[in-house]
């Protein structure tokens, strides 16, 4: 029998830029399994899961996840890692696509994998989105946020 840790390690292997096997990654999930990008409030379910891998790999074709710590705890596997890669393709955001910058990313991340009967039920990815965007040169626009908040407060 394959352990939960082995299943999670296989998921990471299948998501690497030099392997990128979306259908294989999807096969590790339950039928109704979810991939949850927690900082961006994005949930991908079922057969749309491989699309999330493909979209990320199109922006970072050499994407790699450096696993720092892997802790299986019953049906949960907690992982501390770094998402690394080179920004060579468009990166979608709610405000539009960030064109390729050629910059390297090295983003601290923590993932929680919830398994049931040897399948992934939920994968919650907590990447440091603020670090990710800063490394792409797309830091927060605090000035606009402050102006918007002041205008909203003045209209009340």
TrEMBL record:
Keywords noted in UniProt: Isomerase
Pfam family, one: SnoaL_2
Keyword Isomerase: yes
Record-level Gene Ontology MF annotations: isomerase activity
Ranges of residues in domain SnoaL-like: 14-121
Name of protein: Ketosteroid isomerase-related protein
Organism whose genome encodes this protein: Promicromonospora thailandica
Lineage per the UniProt record: Bacteria, Bacillati, Actinomycetota, Actinomycetes, Micrococcales
